[in-house]
Amino acid sequence: MRKELSRLARELQGHFQGQEELGATGFPVELLPPSLPVAAGRAHGWNGHPAAVMGRDGVLASTDPTFRPVHAAVSAAGCLADLRRTTAGCQKCRLCQTRRNVVFGEGAVDADLVFVGEGPGHDEDRLGRPFVGRSGQLLDRILIAMGLSRESVYICNIVKCRPPSNRNPRPDEIKSCEPYLLAQLNHLKPKVICALGTFAAQTLLGTRESISRLRGRLYRYHDIELMATFHPAYLLRKPLAKKQVWDDMQKIQEVLGIPPGSYVGKGPYLPPKGK
């Protein structure tokens, strides 16, 4: 009997440790029904397990049979903090072998606008923060032109680890990281998502269309407006595309109810409205 109790205790301890590593904040008590809406899932204390994401029909779905929802009164900030801890030790794809830091994302947890890029670069990998290199400086100036700031939006990427030599993320790497992104968006629930670049747009919209064909119009993504546009890194190479990006940003401003205005920073950045 004593040996059996010791065995059960070890198994129970291992179970709780596994739940904690997956971001659990309470004791698992019941399975969610397969078609439970997201709002109901939150009422049941869904805690942001990276394998639990919004299905295409807008309900909670799981890609991991070990997923169990947990009763807990947790905020979006708490859920994102749990998810950040989970991604910090992720080894689901080969990018974990070469990264310096997991670049989870940052910004306001109640942001109306979320920017989704493709993946971290050298500076992002070094600092563990998204969009802090030249592309990030350009994005900051775009935000100023929109009447926003980095602190008022949320910024993240399709993949959380830097691909070696800044190569394009591979399909298996995108697939491995996608549940983390979908969980982030599910917690943030912004009014608008801005997909920056080809891989962000194609992943979120489930298409192979080029960014040139996708940009310039609003889509619906789980009842959220989505705008696809060129990545800031592309603008560094092709400055003339700034006019198209500014057109896209003005459409986002309209959705958010931000009055359009001209950039008033140092020197001309984006063309004024109408040019």
Q: What is the CATH class name of the largest domain?
A: Alpha Beta
Number of domains: 2
What pattern of helices and strands is seen along the backbone?
A: HHEEHEEHHEHEHHEEHH
Head-to-tail CA distance between termini: 82 Å
Principal-axis shape: globular
Helix and strand content put the structural class at: alpha/beta
* Number of E-type strands: 8
Q: Superfamily at the CATH H level of the largest domain?
A: Uracil-DNA glycosylase-like domain
Low-confidence stretches: 14-73, 262-275
Mean pLDDT: 77
CATH architecture of the largest domain: 3-Layer(aba) Sandwich
Topology:
Elements (H helix, E strand, L loop, with lengths): L1 H20 L16 H6 L8 E3 L5 E3 L13 H13 L17 E2 L5 E5 L4 H6 L6 H12 L8 E4 L13 H18 L3 E5 L1 H8 L5 H4 L3 E4 L2 E6 L2 H6 L4 H15 L19
Parallel strand pairs: 4-5, 4-6, 6-8
Antiparallel strand pairs: 1-2, 3-5, 7-8
Describe the structure.
The protein has 275 residues and is α/β, with parallel strands linked by helices. It folds into two domains: 12-74, no CATH class; 98-256, Uracil-DNA Glycosylase, subunit E (3-Layer(aba) Sandwich). The protein contains ten helices and eight strands. The chain has helices at residues 2-21, 38-43, 76-88, 122-127, 134-145, 171-188, 198-205, 211-214, 232-237, 242-256; strands at residues 52-54, 60-62, 106-107, 113-117, 154-157, 192-196, 218-221, 224-229. It has a six-stranded mixed beta sheet with strand order 3-5-4-6-8-7, sandwiched between helices. Helix 3 packs antiparallel against helix 6 (171-188). It is globular.
